[in-house]
Amino acid sequence: MEILNAVWGGIISFFGYVQNLGVSVVMPIVLFVFGVILRAGVGKSLRAGLTVGVGFIGLNLVIGLMGSNLGPAVQQMSERFGLSLSIIDVGWPAAAAIAFASQVGTVAIPVCLVVNIIVTVHATTYGVMMFLCIPYVVYQIS
Asked: Which one of 24, 81, 88, 90 is separated from 64 by 20 to 30 angstroms, measured CA to CA?
């Protein structure tokens, strides 16, 4: 049992380390590795990975600026018109950034990718990526 606990602790610490690198570092590496595995070429894979990394940096920058600049305006608007607006809807990009940055996402995303590859190989395609939000919500509630 101690060996199992040690292995589990190692897995958790590995995924914690990967999560601490941040989505802007991990996703370019993952995309580069997938590109090389799928024989897209090293140059093309590197360019795609760097583009994704820069995209995530820009996405986080825009979300941060929206939160800091749009938040007070929404607060004043809700006070002026007597509304109870407490959430700013920024769409799926923010949800993607949250999913990639969460501890559950660090484990659930690779698992879902493997499951998607397996069901695609067996020609029973069924999108399981939409279920990523369920473990995140359960994790946050508990």
From this structure: 81
For the question of whether the overall pTM of this predicted structure is more than 0.70, the answer is no
Write the pLDDT tens digit of every residue in 57-103: 888 888 788 778 877 887 888 888 888 766 667 677 667 767 766 66
Domain residue ranges in the chain: 2-88, 102-142
HEC sequence for the chain: CHHHHHHHHHHHHHHHHHHHHCHHHHHHHHHHHHHHHCCCCHHHHHHHHHHHHHHHHHHHHHHHHHHHHHHHHHHHHHHHHCCCCCCCCCCHHHHHHHHHHCHHHHHHHHHHHHHHHHHHHCCCCCCCHHHHHHHHHHHHHC
